[in-house]
């Protein structure tokens, strides 16, 4: 059996894995990156973050042309869309980006190997190829970055045609007449928005009494109103009892979470979007004694090191939010640690974004979290209806909400709902990383006219008074 030696082996080529591989190589290490898939990028690039954003972009352009262009004096008579072309564009963008990662691997001398990795020892893994051939790799340090997989219901056969995960929902061959989405989190709401804009009747079934339960409740309520205005229907506080496949679709049996009469929801497509779980099975972790919890989360210390000193873990497979950018930060950090450096990640300053329209972006504590922990705080808000650029763009839905400490004025959390929230949140992250006060934000000159002025005004409202309301 062929044996190759490296300084670092990275298992997984998603955002955490490929970034860790490139950074480690840049720091002078000999690196191999292993993935089961032929194309690097993991779930995020191949069947998650990127393809969903492509379809969100395409469907939003169609929706705007259909519902909003006439106010600008632009009329689109005979407007139509070509789903095949939309999917082709999505696939082309994904292909170009995966090729980009392959280029970066070559540029940085990272050896990419397609195959399934299994631990043989704390410093060696066996790689099994699709052909059945195998080889052994050894390294003084091994990084696990295998990502996550969708949570599924027991006894439900996912065919990715009628009963689908996000993977199938991003590759449908036609717009379903009716779509039921089980789960009111980020992924389901984004994909539900795509198909609603293109004409599907979409119903979201969520066990909790609110969508995106971890979100600030005031923001969540505004977000829910926005999605309802788009035409998405919601059954909150509802449990799923079963899904039954038929020839032309499926029936979802639901019931109020607190008990009551059962109801049947018939749909052409049913999407399971109940979150994700760490993908840590099949690696042979028990063979080397790596500790995992009951959910399969690999246990690590503050340096991403498992209980086996030569093995590290990052990304969705460890604690913390399952976000691509969180994995990327950990990828850089673990490589720097392996090089003897001392990086730092502030997990309180990691943003989260829902890429619907309007977008929702948040960083730091919610008002509910501050109340629960007894932290004294102040609230400042500013609506985009009072922002001149938002009015020019006819993107006035939403507001900025800033939470700061009542005594010190240090910013504790910032929450935004707006068409450009995903870009605006960067300023909030910088403010929190450098422990700015709301007055610090308010006294920074923001260009006029820009939607970023809403951040300044919300900050003014937090420590004093806003000007334009």
UniProtKB/TrEMBL annotation:
Q: Which InterPro entries match?
A: Class-I_Pyr_Nuc-Dis_Oxidored, FAD/NAD-bd_sf, FAD/NAD-binding_dom, FAD/NAD-linked_Rdtase_dimer_sf, Lipoamide_DH, Pyr_nuc-diS_OxRdtase, Pyr_nucl-diS_OxRdtase_dimer, Pyr_OxRdtase_I_AS
Co-factor: note: Binds 1 FAD per subunit.
The EC number(s) given in the record are: 1.8.1.4
Q: Which domain of life is it from?
A: Bacteria
- List of residues binding NAD(+): 183-190, 206, 275
What are the protein's GO molecular function terms?
dihydrolipoyl dehydrogenase (NADH) activity; flavin adenine dinucleotide binding
Where do the Pyridine nucleotide-disulphide oxidoreductase dimerisation domain residues begin and end? Answer: 350-459
Q: Which SUPFAM superfamilies match?
A: FAD/NAD(P)-binding domain (SSF51905), FAD/NAD-linked reductases, dimerisation (C-terminal) domain (SSF55424)
- PROSITE patterns the record matches: PYRIDINE_REDOX_1 (PS00076)
Q: Per its Swiss-Prot or TrEMBL entry, what cofactor is needed?
A: FAD
Q: Where is the catalytic site?
A: 448
Q: List the cysteine pairs that form cystine.
A: 44-49
Reactions accelerated catalytically: N(6)-[(R)-dihydrolipoyl]-L-lysyl-[protein] + NAD(+) = N(6)-[(R)-lipoyl]-L-lysyl-[protein] + NADH + H(+)
Name the protein family.
Answer: Belongs to the class-I pyridine nucleotide-disulfide oxidoreductase family.
* UniProt miscellaneous comment: The active site is a redox-active disulfide bond.
User: Which protein, by its recorded name, is this?
Assistant: Dihydrolipoyl dehydrogenase
Supply the source organism for this entry. Answer: Caedimonas varicaedens
Gene behind the chain: lpd3
